[in-house]
Amino acid sequence: MDIAATAPLPGLVTDVCRHCGDPCGAGAITSAEGDFCCHGCETVFTVLQRSGLGAFYSCEVTPGTSQKQAGRRDVMRFAVLDDAAVAERLITFNDGKTARATFAVPSIHCSSCVWLLEQLWRFDDGITRSEVDLLRRAVRVDFNPTSTSLRRIAEHLTAVGYEPSLSPEDAPDRVPASRRTLHLQIGVAGFAFGNIMLFSIPRYANGAPLDPTFQRMFDFLNVLLAIPVLLFSAAPYFRTAWEAIRGRSMAIEVPVALGLAVLFVRSLFDITTGHSEGFFDSFAGLVFFLLLGRLFQHKVFDRIAFDRTYRSFLPLSVRVERAKDVEPIALEHVRPGDYIQIRPGEVVPADAILTNATARIDYAFVTGEQTPVRIAEGDIVRAGGRAVDLMRLRVLRDISHSHLASLWNNPIFAKTKSRWLTDVASRFGAWFTSGAVGLAIGGAIAWWPETGTAASVATAVLIIACPCALTLSAPITLGTAMGLMGTRGLYLKHPAVAFDLSRIDTIAFDKTGTLTETSERRVIESAGLDSHAWAVAGELARHSTHPVSRALANDRHAATELSVVRVSNIEEAPGRGIAGLVDGVRVAIGTTDFVGTGRTSSAPEDRTFVRVGDETGWVRVSSPMRPGVETAARALARSYDVHLLSGDHDTEQARWLDIFGRRMRFRQTPQDKLDFISASHEAGHHILMIGDGLNDSGALAAADVGVAVSDETACMVPACDAVIAGERVAHFPAFLRYARRARTVVWLCFIVSVLYNVIGLTLALRAELTPIASAILMPLSSLTIIGLSWGAMQWSARRILPS
Amino acid sequence: MSVLILLIAAGGTVASGFLIAFVWAVRSGQFDDTCTPAVRMLLDARTPLDDASAQRTTTTESPVSTRV
Question: What is the complex's ipTM, to 2 decimals?
Answer without folding.
Answer: 0.73
